[in-house]
Amino acid sequence: MSTTEPVEDRAAVLAGVGGWVPPHVVTNDDLSAHLDTSDEWIRTRTGIRTRHRVSPGMATSDLAVEAGRRALDSSGDDRAGAVVLATTTPDRICPATAPDVAARLGLAGVPAFDVSAVCTGFLYGLATAAGLIATGVAERVLLIGADAFTTIVDPTDRSTAVIFADGAGAVVLRAGRPEEPGALGPVVLGTDGTLSHLIRVPAGGSRQRSLAATHSPGEQFFQMEGRDTFRHAVDRMATASRQAVAAAGWSMGGVDRLAAHQANARILHAVADRLGIPAEHQLSNIAEVGNTGAASIPLLLAQSAADGGLEAGHRTLLTAFGGGLAWGATTLTWPKLSAG
């Protein structure tokens, strides 16, 4: 698809939102039955009470399809000119999961591909979708963040098993004007590969496979250096947020809602404190769904829009941090949307 509309006059505008979590709920008491932990220990350190887990045989694509369908319904149009899936847990290494998701949504034939930026994947996906719209490749893009993170977490590792969970969130972006409600502001992105060891899955990639050796026990699971990750997460999200707010021409005091990656309650509070954003302006669902990776922000947006936490006119700041290390932030004024 091509367009004669000037690139500088085209913006990606939020037109629909939807989210879904698998029905299997795991409580802190469930985890305490086989881990050296307790409900109090988990709640005080992470802010999480429950999380959702895929059932046997369920994959990331199943989560993505349901969230994508709800976002399309919210937009009032089941069409999209491209599908972008942000995930760290594709159904398989090859091929990408997005084409399967597109086909199952009745969108076979459109460009569809995966984006991998761990918990920052949705922000990277927003920039990608905005680029597809700005260049005329698509008039409407379905962007989904979906992760079945429990499939790569060691169930015996207390430091990760209590935090990570499964879910999906999606948005529909359409071509529009920069001054419209829902138009994405400038997207701030960054990475630091010198710190990639802080968040990793050592086994399964080309480096380990090229050695023609079996991986060491535990290397097939997600690993994270918690203390250093905390520090970098707070610093990078706060810095990126300030840059995005300034680029949008806003002041931090004018931010009505903060939608940060739901990594850990302590991280969320620290970021908000750094930015001077009061508790009543912070969106959060971590207590009910945990850390859902790339699904975190779109799932939070969908649930907040449904429960009234997000209303039309709210100036909203989005920010995320994840493996890579990678981080990002952007802004938008929340538009009037149908529930998804």
TrEMBL record:
It is found in: Cytoplasm. Gene3D superfamilies: 3.40.47.10. One of its GO terms (biological process) is fatty acid biosynthetic process. Its main location: cytoplasm. It catalyses: malonyl-[ACP] + acetyl-CoA + H(+) = 3-oxobutanoyl-[ACP] + CO2 + CoA. The active site is at residues 119, 261, 291. Its EC number is 2.3.1.180. The last Arg residue of the ACP-binding site is essential for the weak association between ACP/AcpP and FabH. Catalyzes the condensation reaction of fatty acid synthesis by the addition to an acyl acceptor of two carbons from malonyl-ACP. Catalyzes the first condensation reaction which initiates fatty acid synthesis and may therefore play a role in governing the total rate of fatty acid production. Possesses both acetoacetyl-ACP synthase and acetyl transacylase activities. Its substrate specificity determines the biosynthesis of branched-chain and/or straight-chain of fatty acids. This is Beta-ketoacyl-[acyl-carrier-protein] synthase III. The gene is manC3.
